[in-house]
Design brief:
The chain has four helices and no strands. The chain is mainly α. It has one domain. α2 runs parallel beside α3.
């Protein structure tokens, strides 16, 4: 199984959490699975690593969609990422 190319420097992936079962679930789903759907991954490529909030969970994409993505320089996002987000998030 592929792992996200940002995992080695990701605060979420490398943190010890208060809710280990939830964190392991999220790591499996996003870090070792569909990392192109990860809020941290998307913000990293849209704005740069320094703009990823330390406490942002990988599944916070829909809650933060307007705040982070609408103003993004979409040319920085990996190919096909923006249409995927539009289909998966309700605004």
């Amino acid at each position: 199984m592929d792992c996200c190319d940002l995992a080695s420097s990701c605060d979420f992936f490398n943190s010890s959490a208060e809710m280990p079962h939830r964190v392991e679930f999220l790591k499996g789903k996003y870090c070792r699975g569909d990392f192109c759907e990860c809020a941290r991954y998307i913000i990293h490529y849209a704005y740069g690593k320094e703009k990823v909030p330390r406490n942002l969970s990988p599944d916070d994409l829909c809650m933060n969609h307007r705040r982070y993505i609408n103003g993004a320089q979409k040319s920085n996002l990996p190919s096909g990422l923006v249409p995927q987000m539009a289909n998966s998030c309700r605004l």
